[in-house]
Write a structure and sequence with these properties.
Blueprint lengths: L1 E5 L2 E8 L11 H12 L3 E5 L6 E8 L5
Antiparallel strand pairs: 1-2, 2-4, 3-4
Length: about 70
């Protein structure tokens, strides 16, 4: 897991080496992460790397200071 803040955004990346996300599994938690990122002007991706497991990346812009 990595958490980085800089260059105007915060990025949280989580990876594991498990079985990955089943094709027909529940998606409510992933959908919630995506909706929250989009409401903030960010993004959410999930992927299955070639070596297996899952990688989730959640991004959101940081507020600008006046």
């Amino acid at each position: 897991m990595t958490l980085k803040a800089g260059q105007g955004e915060v990025v949280l990346a989580v990876s594991d080496n498990g079985k990955g996300i089943p094709a027909h599994g529940r998606r409510s938690g992933l959908r919630n992460l995506d909706e929250r990122a989009q409401c903030l002007g960010g993004s959410f991706t999930h992927e299955t790397p070639d070596e297996g497991g899952t990688r989730l990346v959640w991004r959101a812009p940081l507020p600008t200071r006046s």
